[in-house]
Design a protein that fits this description.
Layout lengths: L13 H4 L3 H13 L3 H39 L5 H15 L1
Helix pairs in contact: 2-3, 3-4
Length: about 100
Amino acid sequence: MSGGRYNYLYQKDPVELIGNSALQAVHDRLASLGYAEDARQAVADIIATIRTYEENASAQIAKISEVLHILEWWDSNDASEDDFQQALEEHRSAAR
């Protein structure tokens, strides 16, 4: 009999857990056992940590997204340094 039903979740790097549906499946399986509450809670804590990270990262990227957008366009020759400086100034003004 082979393992791997949860894609070897126990071997994953933390970054690999983001968006990994096996994590929720493991949580649900532990919950179904009825006697592994501590292990289920540990997995729930991991899921909560990932959600908090995703929410925080989304909020932070939203604040800087226009600067990153114009930087990408500038480096692709679709915008100018002036465009970048304007986006940067708007970002700085919004942060004040």
